[in-house]
Please model this.
Amino acid sequence: MLKAVNLTKKYGSHEVLKGISFEIKKGMIYGFLGQNGAGKSTTMNILTGLIGYNNGEIYLKGKPLKEDKRKLLETVGYLPQHPVFYGYMTALEYLNFIGQVNKMSPKEIKERSKEILEIVKLTDASKRKVGGYSGGMKQRFGMAVAMFNHPEILILDEPTSALDPEGRMEVLELIEKLKSDGTTVFLSTHILNDVERVCDEVSILHEGKIVISENLEELRNKYIQPIYDVEFEEECSGIKKKLLPLSWVQNVSIVKNQASIYVSDLSIAKQELLKTLAAEQNHIVSFNLRKSNLEDIFLRLVNKNVDL
Ligand SMILES: Nc1ncnc2c1ncn2[C@@H]1O[C@H](COP(=O)(O)OP(=O)(O)OP(=O)(O)O)[C@@H](O)[C@H]1O
Ligand SMILES: [Mg+2]
Model:
């Protein structure tokens, strides 16, 4: 659907993108992760034709974007990181304006406005001035504007970052709904929970390069390090000596009556660990497998410079 090949971008002598490549397949929700200043917005502005780039190639639906930029970009909807609206217009007036820009007929504009405002749950506020909307409402309205023209791919730059938990939830639900309707979504964020919740694939942008590009499930499987947290009735330092020699145990850390057991082979650990521990005099109070989340993986990849 959308493919970037070896994109580079310099602001003066500052090379923000040092040759990034990725592919967003049709129907996917694709997460674009990176710390502040990593170049996420820069990439999105390039993909939507708002700013130029130095080298590389962009393909939209298999065609080079350069060849027919105007026509190809008609299939792309974009919600910038800091959308600016004419705050004195009501939602309906604003959508009317967007529809006219897109050369839609008055009838089409009216129908689409009604439909889209229902989707983003702003029907009741449709006659209020957009300037008076809350942050969450503005964000949802921004999505309505981006989706107005039935784009096949929607590019959302940090759609949830400025929102409170409830507002975030509403926007995430909307994104999930879009996916079920077949829209492809490319979204940037630094909120890892949101990525875990809605994305199928992710890329992590770091120091101008994509350090990882992977299906979320595969990413988890690849980088997961299973840890069992076990609480005993009494102080448990004795188990360390017993567990460490086992081939499937990588490390054991003990704090009073709590043990964290890092295992290298989850399938053996599932069968053996509880048995081994149950043979102890010290009784088990709780036993939990801690799943590593995207945050653990992200920190390992980005901060600790794990060699890939
Ligand atoms: N117009 C510009 N001129 C010069 N430098 C710029 C310009 N726009 C962005 N930059 C620089 O490029 C780098 C990437 O910025 P960008 O806004 O793309 O990052 P980002 O990943 O979107 O960050 P954030 O998470 O804060 O939104 C930053 O170092 C920024 O200062
Ligand atoms: Mg940004």
User: Anything to note?
Assistant: The mean pLDDT is 90. The longest strand covers residues 14-24. The chain has two domains: 2-214, 225-290.
